């Protein structure tokens, strides 16, 4: 338990990765910060590194002291949320320290389980955000900790429970929430081939479907988002982490804290034009801002 996890994110040597991240961030505009929460993709950086930069550009390292990273479980069936057994995550830039005090507080609620080290190492939904987190927080690297949370296939009522629990952390401006999610995964290998011919090419139909979902997320209404998913079954892999975030915002709204959310960029990993194509579509988004 006390040992470092071997969770290394090494798509390239540290210096090469650092240069890539700097390049992508330099192309993005800081238009909507400081972010309280971002949704950013976790596909390989080749596909979504430039897209994710628009979200990470809104992070203000001077006020952020804790970074919650909520990622979906891809490999292990999980009906609740799970915490890492590690104390530190290694990245090619520098090590990220897991906040053991927050972990202890979350553990006391009885709502979390412990993921195995193997599950932690196999899961990329959190891992892909570690180098970007390190880069965005580089100027204050000794002054923050991270809170990784693996989110299972939650029911709507569980999303509400976790949202309520995490809302007190979201209310604190020194906490940043990173929600890990790609959007539509389209094609026969994903068992999802929804196509609205009125939109033109398949990739345009996918974009229309995704942007409809993005517009609903911007309304910050968890029930509308659930209804959208029930109607279209869009393969948004981070739908449960997004649902938790929306419920946390809804809880704060009850207490008079108003926030807004806007998507800053949308990208597809490839443009599907026929039934044999497939695409993992990625997007990302801007902060929740207090008004």
Are there runs of 5+ residues with pLDDT below 50, and where?
A: 1-12, 287-291
Approximate strand percentage: 15-25%
Query: How do the SSEs run, as a string of H and E?
Result: HEHEEEEHEHHHEHEEHHHEE
> How many separate helices?
10
Tell me, what is the CATH class? Answer: Alpha Beta
Most strands sheet? 6 strands, mixed
Which sequence of strands runs across the widest sheet? Answer: 1-8-2-7-3-6
What is the approximate shape? globular
Mean pLDDT: 85
Secondary-structure arrangement, i.e. CATH architecture: 3-Layer(aba) Sandwich
**Would you report the number of β strands?**
11
Into which percent range does the helicity of residues fall? 25-40%
Attribute tags:
10 helices, globular, alpha/beta, Protocatechuate 4,5-dioxygenase, Chain B, 291 residues
Task: Describe this structure as you would to a colleague.
This is Protein MEMO1. InterPro entries: MEMO1_fam (IPR002737). Pfam families: Memo. This protein is of the alpha/beta class and 291 residues long. The chain has one domain: LigB-like (Protocatechuate 4,5-dioxygenase, Chain B), CATH 3.40.830. Helix content is 38%, strand content 20%. The chain is built from ten helices and eleven strands. The strands form three sheets. A six-stranded mixed sheet has the order 1-8-2-7-3-6, with helices on both faces. The chain has a three-stranded antiparallel sheet with strand order 9-11-10. A hairpin with a 6-residue loop joins strand 4 and strand 5. Helix 7 crosses helix 10. The longest helix is centred in the last third of the chain and has 17 residues. The chain starts with 13 loop residues before the first helix and ends with a strand.
């Amino acid at each position: 338990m006390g040992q470092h996890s071997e969770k290394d994110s090494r798509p390239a040597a540290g210096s090469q990765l650092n240069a890539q991240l700097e390049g992508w961030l330099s192309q993005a505009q800081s238009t909507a910060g400081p972010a309280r929460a971002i949704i950013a993709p976790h596909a390989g950086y080749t596909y979504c590194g430039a897209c994710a930069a628009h979200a990470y550009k809104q992070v203000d390292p001077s006020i952020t002291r804790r970074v919650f990273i909520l990622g979906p479980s891809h490999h292990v069936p999980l009906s609740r949320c799970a915490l890492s057994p590690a104390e530190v995550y290694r990245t090619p830039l520098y090590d990220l320290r897991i906040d053991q005090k927050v972990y202890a507080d979350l553990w006391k609620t009885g709502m979390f389980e412990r993921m195995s080290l193997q599950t932690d190492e196999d899961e990329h939904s959190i891992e892909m955000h570690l180098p970007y987190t390190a880069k965005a927080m580089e100027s204050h690297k000794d002054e923050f900790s991270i809170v990784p949370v693996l989110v299972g296939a939650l029911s709507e009522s569980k999303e509400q429970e976790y949202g309520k629990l995490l809302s007190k952390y979201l209310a604190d401006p020194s906490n940043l929430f990173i929600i890990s999610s790609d959007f539509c995964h389209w094609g026969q290998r994903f068992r999802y081939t929804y196509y609205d011919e009125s939109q033109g090419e398949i990739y345009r139909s996918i974009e229309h479907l995704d942007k409809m979902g993005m517009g609903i997320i911007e309304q910050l209404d968890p029930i509308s988002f659930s209804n959208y998913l029930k109607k279209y079954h869009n393969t948004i892999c981070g739908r449960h982490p997004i649902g938790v975030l929306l419920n946390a915002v809804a809880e704060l709204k009850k207490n008079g804290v108003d926030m807004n959310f806007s998507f800053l960029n949308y990208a597809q990993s490839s443009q599907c034009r026929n039934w044999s194509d497939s695409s993992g579509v990625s997007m990302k988004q801007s902060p929740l801002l207090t008004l």
